[in-house]
Write a structure and sequence with these properties.
Length: 62
């Protein structure tokens, strides 16, 4: 399997869509407005950006 950096744009789009669908399915099991709150938090963090690069654990770097 190629690394994420080597994956084609359509593969990344498909992986992102599958991840969103999995998250949405899980959030449907939560009470109330958890889904709306979750995606609002994601949007807020995405807009803010990361202050510093995220370290990748050695076991994930391979």
């Amino acid at each position: 399997m190629p690394s994420l950096l080597e994956a084609a744009e359509d593969e990344l789009t498909a992986m992102a869509q599958a991840a969103r669908e999995a998250i949405d399915l899980r959030l449907q099991m939560s009470p109330g407005e958890d889904g709306v709150s979750f995606w609002a938090a994601v949007a807020k963090l995405y807009a803010r950006g990361l202050a510093e690069p995220v370290a990748v654990p050695e076991e994930c770097a391979a």
